[in-house]
Design a protein that fits this description.
Blueprint (H helix, E strand, L loop, with lengths): L4 H12 L3 H29 L2 H8 L2 H21 L9 H7 L1 H31 L5 H25 L3 H4 L2 H4 L6 H25 L5 H19 L2 H30 L11 H4 L2 H19 L1 H5 L18 H24 L5 H11 L10
Helix pairs in contact: 1-12, 2-12, 2-14, 2-16, 3-17, 4-16, 6-7, 6-11, 6-16, 7-10, 7-11, 10-11, 11-12, 12-14, 12-17
Length: 369
Amino acid sequence: MLSGVWLLLLLLVAQALGMVTRLSDPLRTYLPILCWGGHIVSPVITAWGNPAFRTVMRNDTTRFVVVPAIFLVVSVVLGVLGDMGWSSLAESVRQQINPRFAMFLVFMAWNVWHFSSQHFGVLSIYRHVANRSASRDRTLDRTFSVVLGCVLLPLAWYSQGAANRLGPLLDWLPPPARSHAFAGAIAILAGVLTVVYMARELFVDRRSIPRTLYIFSIGIQPICAVVAMPVYHFAVFTACHWMIALALSGRISSNLANGHPPGQRVFPDLKRLNACHAAHVGVLMLFSVPLYYLLFRPAAAFGAFDAGIHFAYRLGETSWLLGALSGGYFGITFVHFIYDRHVYSFRNPAVRGAIGAQLFRKPAGVLPR
């Protein structure tokens, strides 16, 4: 599993060599291009590419087809409506009722829950590999992931005025009093909770060193958001999340392709390509490039937003096309959230049998002859 700790260590070495300033901009430019789009579609490909799970989805089209389609279509419509018919209203009122603004708020809340859920899921995978099934461990994993990911991390962004994370919320919230003390308290609390949880992990039966390292990668996120350069936080927060999604999808697809009975079609019908973990991840990364330029580059082309179209929440500042692309960004992200929730919910027997069976097999790493 790719926890992002190794990337953080590389950046620290680069800082020691005086290379961080030169590396920071390319890192935050090219990693989104190479990883974001592939990570977005990875749970959809994992779900529809698995014949056993595809049967489950066909028997529940409301959950896997109708609801995601509604989220996508409604998001595009709301993105367009963000610039229609509000010109006579005061700016403060238009800001509050802008549909894109509402989508951003939903996105922000759902996104932090989505990230913390992935943390919980990865900890659960390591717990399963270590043959630990105590309900107490599961409860503690969930609590740790939610407290660090849904509470301390957003508070760390707030203490730093991170507009790229909190967007228009910063216009509503009062500046944190004595922000340095507030930020320091967040970092200290995150550090204490992480050290305590790592220490517990080292003294339990059937301990897992990779799991302990992943606990560290969760705990370091609020600390990096407060005390480190943005590029470090990007490495252990965003890049870590993307790489894990690509790794999971690649492992499941490669094991499925190598273990599938001959003569039965695996969708998409690229058995030789899917049979190699690295090849599957490579295809997802290549897919990221056109998706990135479709959804992000128009913002620069229209000269509207340097930060990207998903922050196009003010009325009257975008064209209808850019509004539709902004809605499309939210829409496919919401579809990603929905599929990720269903595909990796291993408490569901159908998921355990179809997805888990491939995930926990020894990974296949070479192309078949």
